[in-house]
């Protein structure tokens, strides 16, 4: 099954300019990194793909499921840029609550919350109040919440922002396991070098357009000749944006 945006147009209000216009995109298998400068339209793409907002034109589908269907919402999970901890809820209660909102029974939600927290390696913190978790931990709670109903597609808006290197490592391992289990992941980030070399695919956007979408090798070869090792992803990204500006 493939998540597809077909000729989608979206703007935030009738008098505002379109952020995406007749925008089409097909999510590849595996882990895809979504790159682009501030305001490129990455969050908007993720929100459309998650059916959090509805396009003014075009359609979003997953296989033969329309984004308007309840089944679609079960298959696709979205994690927003910021997760608000709820003072009265522990990590497990938070995840179970999201599961319940997604239509699971209370018992199921409670059981699955435990499993989801195990998947993101937060078992030890399951009884800790969400307000007492670190920024990286609360993001992993967000991923657990996104996973609690066994979604097949995970849309993550800047999940690694503010994580320290150890949290990042852990987070990468969690993602790698999910991808191994067949979950498709689309992840936006400003950390070009951080993940690009591990991803299966890279999509680069600017001003509502896709500048490149392909496997990671096709992205990395965009780096100018002579780019220092360790700077290849950054070089490729900059070269693509510079070329995109000339179009
Ligand atoms: N709620 C909103 N109301 C009005 N305009 C918005 C809203 N959200 C986003 N926009 C506008 O839509 C455009 C694309 O924003 P979007 O958040 O999708 O970009 P982005 O690539 O995710 O940026 P960033 O990297 O800064 O998060 C920007 O011009 C932004 O100002």
Summarize the structure.
The chain is built from nine helices and ten strands.
Structure in words:
GO terms for molecular function: ATP binding; ATP hydrolysis activity. Pfam families: ABC_tran (PF00005). Belongs to the ABC transporter superfamily. The chain has 247 residues and is α/β, with parallel strands linked by helices. The chain has a single domain, classed as Rossmann fold (3-Layer(aba) Sandwich), CATH 3.40.50.300. It has nine helices and ten strands. Helix 3 packs parallel to helix 5 and helix 4 (106-119) crosses helix 5. Bound molecules: adenosine-5'-triphosphate. Residues 12, 19, 36, 38-44 line the site of adenosine-5'-triphosphate.
Task: Reconstruct the topology from this structure.
Elements: E1 3-10, E2 20-26, E3 31-35, H1 42-49, E4 57-62, E5 65-66, H2 70-75, E6 76-79, H3 91-101, H4 106-119, H5 135-147, E7 153-157, H6 165-180, E8 184-188, H7 192-195, E9 201-206, E10 209-215, H8 216-220, H9 232-245
Parallel strand pairs: 3-8, 3-9, 6-7, 7-8
Antiparallel strand pairs: 1-2, 1-4, 4-5, 9-10
Helix pairs in contact: 3-4, 3-5, 4-5
This protein binds adenosine-5'-triphosphate (ATP).
Number of domains: 1
Based on DSSP secondary structure assignment, what is the total number of beta strands?
Answer: 10
The percent range for helix content is: 25-40%
| Bound small molecules, deduplicated | adenosine-5'-triphosphate
**What does the main sheet amount to?**
6 strands, mixed
Principal-axis shape: globular
- In CATH, the homologous superfamily goes by the name P-loop containing nucleotide triphosphate hydrolases
Oligomer: single chain
Residue ranges: pLDDT <50 for 5 or more in a row?
none
CATH class: Alpha Beta
The separation of the N and C termini measures 33 Å
- The fold-level CATH name is Rossmann fold
Report the average pLDDT across residues: 91
Secondary structure category? alpha/beta
Any idea what the CATH architecture is?
3-Layer(aba) Sandwich
Q: What portion of residues belong to β-strands?
A: 15-25%
Radius of gyration: 18 Å
Strand order of the largest sheet: 6-7-8-3-9-10
